[in-house]
Amino acid sequence: xxxxxxxxxxxxxxxxxxxxxxxxxxxxxxxxxxxxxxxxxxxxxxxxxxxxxxxxxxxxxxxxxxxxxxxxxxxxxxxxxxxxxxxxxxxxxxxxxxxxxxxxxxxxxxxxxxxxxxxxxxxxxxxxxxxxxxxxxxxxxxxxxxxxxxxxxxxxxxxxxxxxxxxxxxxxxxxxxxxxxxxxxxxxxxxxxxxxxxxxxxxxxxxxxxxxxxxxxxxxxxxxxxxxxxxxxxxxxxxxxxxxxxxxxxxxxxxxxxxxxxxxxxxxxxxxxxxxxxxxxxxxxxxxxxxxxxxxxxxxxxxxxxxxxxxxxxxxxxxxxxxxxxxxxxxxxxxxxxxxxxxxxxxxxxxxxxxxxxxxxxxxxxxxxxxxxxxxxxxxxxxxxxxxxxxxxxxxxxxxxxxxxxxxxxxxxxxxxxxxxxxxxxxxxxxxxx
Length: 434
Ligand code: DOR
What we know:
Layout: E1 4-14, E2 19-28, E3 31-36, E4 49-53, E5 58-61, E6 63-68, H1 81-90, E7 93-98, H2 109-122, E8 126-131, H3 145-151, E9 155-157, H4 166-178, E10 183-185, E11 198-199, H5 202-207, E12 211-212, H6 215-231, E13 235-237, H7 243-254, E14 259-263, H8 265-269, H9 291-302, E15 308-309, H10 318-321, H11 338-347, H12 353-360, H13 362-368, E16 383-393, E17 412-422, E18 425-429
The structure holds (4S)-2,6-dioxohexahydropyrimidine-4-carboxylic acid.
């Protein structure tokens, strides 16, 4: 049995305490026991020490995803807890929050408990269910949030659907705040998006497709910010996609309202132009927007207005995707491509590396009250080793998720997760890089 794991001469980066240095990092009994220049020197020769030496590699705190669809219960052909957590580990994630739009909906203690128990039995990375706001995600009657919390839920959301009724949303904010659960809103005024296939703009007009206007998101975020202020409750915007959302969150924060937000890699990288060929892999909800929105989202993420990156990992099978755009289910897989894709933005100078790491670690952990992964002596050993220079071509068939729906197939990316460590256990090693 391996007693210790020793990373030698890695570039260790943890913006939470301004760490960016070449050091050795030693992991024993699930914790980081030593961190410093040559800290592993006397260990390297010992038996039962796994030494990891990879010139140029980076060691980061493990990533936290606030937004994944793991499809269990009900659609295990697309994903299940085991495959989802496996994909998460391959993407460098150590904490995964899973959305409740399953069948049945996770609106009860029993579903939450089952998910938690499954994940524990599997081992690997940690799973944190997000319970529904309303029973059946019907937008009417509130769930028993005390039960959900007791069973392990870290937040509530009706993601996939919006809580459009202001009275229900007000009550949800009041009720959830008594249990210190953040309310995560899928901001979409359904009355404005009925039958929509993509973003409402020049491309939807050209393609003759019904559009999902930005304002359908903005009106909900604006209203919710006012409700959160009135109630004094925590409010989190899921998958922000518009320049308006970014502006509203910026203004809310400036006024001291407890509002946070997340953005997905695809909303930072793609525009509605990707739909020109009717590619169903590019159909997501909210839809891919315009260059101006992408620009605003990038700026908001860079300056911390948007707190974190979340994948919105949404696996779908061919029955849902190899159909006409109008029939296709929205969503794309995200866990395994998130970091390599976003590293491109760091290279382009759009995003400082330290902000990207914060947006994937401490910032999301803070939103749902998880212990933030940290790179320092004494911390729980939740780590991700990255080879920043590895160039590879995305091949959906080689992903760990059960689904293949990604528009990034065949794209060359630079940067790869080489190893993920959760509580001192190696939960992923990249066969190709080692
Ligand atoms: O693209 C999306 N897919 N957006 C959502 O809100 C739901 C998700 C899903 O469950 O597939």
